[in-house]
Specification:
By secondary structure, this protein is of the alpha/beta class. It is built from eight helices and ten strands. The chain binds adenosine-5'-diphosphate and magnesium ion.
């Protein structure tokens, strides 16, 4: 089996707002799949459906061959689905290290002893080693993004979902985050990476473009970025938010 995750016909409405409509997608083991779409196109809602924050009105989610549509966020984390949040929410009055231990022992499948044994590798991979004993509240945006990634990694995911992890960063900072994403992927973690800026997505394996909660196009970065449909769906959309 080459798919780690498939979604079939997912729909989710909030009152009269149809956030995601009849979304089907597949994620191949080992790839970095980019998800692209303007603000409000349903990207975060799609993540919330894949991770179990919301139950879909229709459709199903299959992870490693198992239908997981009905199981909780916590159970999905235990199966190996990790995620970051668009707005990082670390525990501000805990250190970087403590944040990682909480993520590893609560979300993960580990004792504190096992978690302590792995934490240095996670810190190293995310460039946080020298900030291990800093309080999370004192971190810069870039370091909060690193910590957000590290917290997700501490749950030992097979599939990692990144929600606008480069959002709000300068180009140079975003490049550093990209390096982290690459090194995580090289360790064998499959990645789904949402951004609403096209430029970030060069170099991913495939891109799925969303338009108003629907699957618009999925293909190579070249195919998707040169698509008239994709370009049209970005016209008139502010690029700076
Ligand atoms: P994106 O992440 O692509 O910016 P979202 O998935 O956050 O898009 O939002 C898609 C649509 O669903 C938007 O119109 C948004 O206002 C709406 N929406 C998202 N979450 C909620 C919610 N919890 N309650 C009501 N409306 C929501
Ligand atoms: Mg979003």
């Amino acid at each position: 089996m080459t798919e780690i995750l498939t979604a079939e016909g997912l729909s989710k409405a909030f009152g009269s707002v149809q956030a995601v409509t009849d979304m089907s997608m597949d994620v191949r083991k080992g790839e970095i799949l980019g998800i692209l779409g303007p603000n409000g196109s349903g990207k975060t809602t799609l993540f919330n459906l894949l991770t179990g924050v919301y139950k879909p009105d229709r459709g199903r989610v299959v992870f490693n061959g198992r239908d997981i549509t009905a199981i909780s966020v916590h159970q999905r984390v235990r199966l190996g689905i990790g995620r970051t949040y668009q707005i990082p929410r670390p525990f501000g009055n805990m250190t970087v290290l403590e944040n990682l231990l909480v993520a590893a022992t609560q979300g993960g499948r580990q004792s504190e002893k096992a978690a302590r044994g792995e934490v240095d590798e996670t810190l190293e991979m995310t460039g946080l080693t020298s900030l291990k004993y800093q309080f999370a509240r004192s971190l810069t945006l870039l370091d909060r993004k690193r910590l957000e990634t590290a917290r997700a990694l501490a749950t030992r995911p097979h599939l990692l979902l990144l929600d606008e992890i480069a959002g709000g960063l300068t180009e140079a900072e975003a490049h550093q985050v990209l390096k982290i994403i690459r090194s995580v992927n090289e360790k064998g973690v499959t990645i789904i990476w949402i951004e609403h800026l096209m430029a970030m997505m060069e170099g991913v394996d495939r891109i799925l473009a969303l338009d108003q909660g629907r699957h618009l196009l999925c293909g190579s970065p070249k195919e998707v970025m040169s698509s008239e449909e994709v370009v049209a769906c970005y016209m008139g959309v502010e690029e700076d938010s």
